[in-house]
Write a structure and sequence with these properties.
single chain, about 270 residues, alpha+beta, 9-stranded mixed beta sheet, 15 strands, about 30% strand
Length: about 270
């Protein structure tokens, strides 16, 4: 009798622990880490792009607030180049750039899709002497009027580490580096250094991810946040550091933990 009671107690306790874990890991923490207090209109949006074949692509990790002209002027001020459209000529030029190791600072980028629509704008910053390696970002206009009464853009910023073959389609493509947060940080800081930013804040993206895969099968990891930069209107340079709007406490704690995890991932 005593043994039966003991076994029942162990099974009940184990079930309670499993239930508590499930509630914490799959309900409470995801809900607590999901925040759109600075841009509520993004709360119901998907945060992942897709390839033409419908394969999940690069995740959204940056955002801009401002008109199309504001975005173009700000990226120009930060020394990011607009990507050429994909044509026969630009395709030949990028092949020549990679093979011959010669500059092509505005080389085309492959199309990705968000809500069935390819990117509205794309920019890049060369790393090295050819188009083999580069930081780049694609932007989509997602809100005509956000919380600030201005257009809101979401972007996917990644680092192209070299040309290779897609693991999913066998097509020739660029492969991205795994630390996509580093490119997000680079772009945000360069816009800030150029005086193009009024304020910076975070909204939830895809959430903390250790084993993500993009549309070419490349691995990536991220804290899952989108850094949004509210741009100055008409490139009117801001001489002061931008205002940083705070995220909820639990999100800040999560980010602190992630920074330590990132150090380990970088080796």
């Amino acid at each position: 009798m005593l043994q039966a009671v003991s076994s029942w107690y162990v099974l009940t306790s184990l079930a309670a622990v499993v239930a508590a874990y499930g509630l914490l890991a799959y309900v409470i923490l995801p809900a607590a880490w999901t925040h759109h207090e600075h841009q509520p209109g993004l709360a119901v949006r998907s945060m992942v792009t897709r390839t033409k074949q419908g394969i999940p692509g690069d995740p959204m990790n940056v955002g801009l607030v401002g008109s199309r002209e504001d975005v173009i002027q700000a990226m120009h001020a930060a020394n990011w180049y607009p990507a050429d459209p994909i044509t026969l000529r630009s395709s030949i030029e990028i092949i020549g750039s990679v093979i011959l190791d010669r500059p092509y600072k505005d080389a085309p980028v492959s199309n990705l899709y968000y809500n069935g629509r390819r990117e509205d704008l794309a920019f890049e910053k060369p790393v090295g002497s050819s188009a083999d390696q580069r930081d780049h970002v694609r932007f989509w206009l997602v809100l005509d009027q956000g919380a600030e009464g201005r257009p809101v853009w979401l972007g996917a910023a990644t680092f192209d580490r070299g040309v290779g073959i897609s693991r999913y389609t066998a097509q020739v493509t660029h492969h991205i580096g795994p630390d996509i947060d580093a490119v997000r940080s680079l772009l945000t800081k360069e816009l800030e250094a150029a005086g193009m930013v009024q304020a910076i804040y975070q909204v939830s993206g895809i959430g903390p991810t250790l084993n993500g895969r993009n549309g070419e099968g490349d691995p990536y990891y991220t804290d899952g946040e989108i850094w949004v930069s509210r741009l100055v209107p008409a490139a009117a340079k801001n001489p002061r550091p931008p205002k940083v709007l705070a995220s909820p406490l639990l999100v800040r704690l999560k980010d602190a933990v992630w920074r330590e995890v990132n150090k380990i991932l970088r080796g």
